[in-house]
Structure formats: structure tokens, C-alpha cells
Amino acid sequence: MVVGELSQERDVVIIGGGPGGYHAAIRAAQLGLQVTLIEKKQLGGLCLHEGCIPSKLHTAAAQNFERLHGFKNLGMKIDQVVFALDVLQEHKHKTINTLKKGIEALCKANKIEIIEGEASFLAQGKIGVENGHQYDTFTYQYAIIASGCPRKPILETKTKTLTPKTMWNLDELPDELILYGNDDYVLEIATAFNSFGSSVTILLPPNSDEFSFDSSLTKELNRQLKKQKIKVIKLSEPPTIEEIGDKYEINCKDKANSTLQLTSSHVYVAEERAPKEVTLGLDRAGVNLDDRSFVEINEGCQTNVPNIYAIGDITSGPALAVKAIKQGKVAAENISGMNTVYDLTFLPRVLQTIPPIATVGLTEHAAIDAGYKVKIGESPLQSNGYATIIGEKAGVIKTISDQETDVLLGMHIIGSHAVEQISSGVLALEMVAREEDMLFPLYPHPSLNECLLESVEDTTDKAIHKPPQVKKQKVTAT
User: Fold this and answer.
1) CATH number at residue 446
2) For residues 329 and 24, is the Cβ–Cβ distance under 8 A?
3) How confident is the model at residue 35 (pLDDT cuts 50, 70, 90)?
4) N or C: which end of the chain has fewer CB within 10 A?
5) Are residues 20 and 71 in the same domain?
6) Are 157 and 146 members of one domain?
7) Are 98 and 164 members of one domain?
8) Are 361 and 52 in contact (CB under 8 A)?
9) What pLDDT does 258 receive?
């Protein structure tokens, strides 16, 4: 190993070139700072190479594959449509490479220095970077930790199973696919591979929420899973998984404690973050960790060490790219002297399932538990003209508001283009919108957006395309 004799001075050093890291780097450069970005693998991070982009390529393929079934009603005759996984994988590699080159070009255009290697803190104000036989040290004015976080399976097994990384790299389509977990990836994988032709079963871990959506969405989701013939089994204890020949054998007990023995060609086990496995030398930098070993930060993404910031999966909260991106910009702006904060109160949750799901704000039960007297409005897509035109009538939009102030508290969507529509809900909640703020604008016709309008109208029983509910009258005995 060749060790640099002198430490090299840098203004802003960012560890990690994932979504949070490269957004932070570009924003800092835009604000006139000299930026050095250290990445041990490839720019784009887990999101681009193993998570967000590969998964959404698969779900986009599945959603479009499903749409083909309705094309005959629009006058198009499509015979013998076959899904080719190898073609999708080729497209995936091209797409990832294109996006990676785009990030590289943006960094170059913003005069960001890119250093390849694995970084770790040597002391406060000093970082070491190892790349093969080369080892260099750097001092810095400011550092942003955007390293991401190691992951581990939620179930220890003696046999090798599919992971969020390997799931999107399959060479052949599974005949059967058993999924253990209850996170968003599990649902996306289930509906996508079911569409491709796999027989899918979901095993829900013991002592876990089913999928932690609003009750109305959970009801509709279960209906859709049943319609798609995706089995969902709630377990009372963790399963055991063995590889026997070319099959997996899963022994488990359902919620009624009945013993089940399942076989499958492929098994997937969900993962969770493992912050204790982080090897960044944070103790040498004096950075505080919380009780789960995530880096502690304030609302400006600053750690207890004033010139060190942290963003993304290495911090507590949801492991979402949207969080890392926001935090990256906040950290860069604060380093440049601005006073910026991040707030995850109205962080949207989106799934590109079949049909898609998107939520923001409080669920009905959470709002009631928080002490609100709530009003509920629902608009089913089957009553929407454009949903009927495109043949995607499954789903519902639900709005929750406060009885006393009419302020919106939450919006929950399952159905076509849910992910695109939820931005209206995010904006409304951030602006403390009342029902009248949602009812005043003109909504395009015909469009799926009209369901959003009618879900708000329904909070006062004024949705046009929803029959009036018969109210039971109290009968007083005479």
C-alpha cells in the first residue's frame, strides 16, 4: 500500500455518491463551494444500481404488460404477447449506464472532484481514503456523511435466498416465488412477478403490521391481491428455509398455529438496515450515534460535531431516496451559510405496485388517535370517466380532514397514476390547505384528477359521482 506523505486540504468532502451525496455535491457547487465527492463503488449508489431504478424498471414492465390486456377494447389486436426477462435485463443495464453517465456529466459540469475509494475518519477534521494499494489522507473544512447503511436479512437462514439486490438480476423467471417480509419491496415484487407469470406467495412475519396503510387502502389492496391470485399468509413464528435439490422447502405456522410446508423454486427474504455494521470511524471523529446506532442530526442535518453533517440511510427515519435528496440539499445550504431545515412530517410513501399506491399524512386511525374529529371522503376510480376509458378502474382516493377546521390531514391513493397524483396531496398538506382550497380550482376533464376533487367533496357528502348514502333514522318507541 502506498500512503500519501501529506494530507491534502479540501473545503467540502462528501462521503458517498448516492442520491443524497451527489445532490449535496451539486447544490454545494451551485453555492460556490469547492466540493470533493468520495465514492467506493459507483456514482448513483444503491438507488441507481440495486434499488430504486432496477425495481421500477421491473414494475414499469409489469404495469405495461398488464395494460396490454385492455388494448383490445381500444381497437388494437395484440396476439401472443410474451414477456422476455432477458430483454428487460438488457434494457435495465442500458438505463442504469445512461443515468450514471448523466450524474458523472453533471458533477464534471459543476467542477466537482470525484475520488474513488473507501473513506473513513481518522480524527476530527481528517479522512483517509483507501483504493487498492493507494491510501490518501485529506483534511476538510466541512464533511457530509452520505455513505448509506449496510443491510442484513430480517431472517437468518442456512441457505442462500434472494435479496433486494439479486432479485432484480435474475436470468430466468421463477416458476414459484415465496416472499418473506412486509415492506414496500415485497409488494412491488409480488405484483410485478405475478404479472410476469410466477406463482407468488407472501409470508408476513409474526408480530408485524400487515402493510401499515390506511384501513381503506389495506382493504382495497387485499382485494386486489386476491383478485391477482397472490396468496398472503400471516405467520405466528419465523419460518425455516431449506434447499432440497432444485427447490426450497419452507416450514412455518400460520396465525392459527397450523403447520404449513411450502415448496418453491425461489425464495426472497426482505432486508433491514444494520447501522452497527458501519465502518466509517465515526468514533474517531467524535460523532454521536442514537440508541440504534444511527448518526444523530438536528433539523439542519448537522451532527454534534459542528462541521460534520449526515444525510440519508445513515440517519434515522425511513430509508428513502427522497429523504436523502432533501437532506443533501439542506446540508449543503447550511454549510454555505444559509439557515435551512428538513421536515419529514409530510414525506410521501409510494409503491409502483399493480395498482400503484401513494400516501401522505395521517391515516384515519392515526388522526383519531391524535385527537382529531375527522371527516372522511372517498372516491372510487370505477366512477371516473377517464379511468373507464383507459380500463384502469381499480382503486380509490381517500381524503381525511379535521371536522373543526376543515384542514386536510391525509391523502391516500390506490389506483392508476397514484404516484403522480400524490404530489397534489403533499403540496396541500404542506400549505395547510382546507377543503375549500382543494375545491376552488378547476380540474381537467376527463382526468383521474377528478377523483381527487370528488374525494374532498365526499367529506361533506357532495361528490357528484357517488350515490347518496341512506342514513338510518332513529325510531323512538311510543
Assistant:
1) 3.30.390.30
2) yes
3) very high
4) C
5) yes
6) no
7) no
8) no
9) 96
Domain residue limits at 244: 152-270
Confidence (pLDDT) at 478: 44
Amino acid, single-letter form, for residue 162: L
Q: Which amino acid is at 107?
A: C
Kindly report whether the global pTM for this prediction surpasses the value 0.90.
yes
Query: Are 264 and 278 contained in the same domain?
Result: no
Encoded amino acid at 198, one letter = S
Are 463 and 439 contacting, i.e. CB atoms less than 8 angstroms apart?
A: no
Mean pLDDT for the stretch of residues 189-202: 98
Q: How many domains does the chain have?
A: 3
Statement to judge: residues 397 and 442 lie in one domain: yes
What would the mean pLDDT of 222-239 be, rounded to a whole number?
96
8 A C-beta contact, residue 197 and residue 265: no
Spatial distance between the Cα atoms of 80 and 82, rounded to a whole number of angstroms: 6
Interaxial angle between packed helices 19-30 and 85-109, expressed in degrees from 0 to 180 and rounded to the nearest 10: 30
C-alpha cell, 5: 506523505
Q: 201: which 3 cell numbers?
A: 406467495
| Beta pairing class for 231-244 and 199-204 | parallel
Report the DSSP beta bridge partners of residue 178. Answer: 201, 267
Catalytic residue from among 69, 91, 93, 445:
445
pLDDT at 85 over 60: yes
SS3 labels along the chain: CEECCCCEEEEEEEECCCHHHHHHHHHHHHCCCCEEEEECCCCCHHHHHCCHHHHHHHHHHHHHHHHHHHHHHHCCCCCCCCCCHHHHHHHHHHHHHHHHHHHHHHHHHCCCEEEECEEEEEECCEEEEEECCEEEEEEEEEEEECCCCCEEECCCCCCCCECCCCHHHCCCCCCEEEEECCCHHHHHHHHHHHHHCCEEEEEECCCCCCCCCCHHHHHHHHHHHHHCCCEEEEEEEEEEEEEECCEEEEEEEECCCCEEEEEECEEEECEEECHHHCCCCHHHHCCCECCCCCECCCCCCECCCCCEEECHHHECCCCCHHHHHHHHHHHHHHHCCCCCCCCCCCCCEEECCCCCEEEEECCHHHHHHCCCCEEEEEEEHHHCHHHHHHCCCCEEEEEEEECCCCEEEEEEEEECCHHHHHHHHHHHHHCCCEHHHHHCCCCCCCCCHHHHHHHHHHHHCCCCCCCCCCCCCCCCCC
User: Does the CA dihedral 53-59-63-64 come out positive or negative?
Assistant: positive
Residue 69 designated active-site:
no
Task: Inform me whether the pLDDT recorded for 1 exceeds 60.
Answer: no
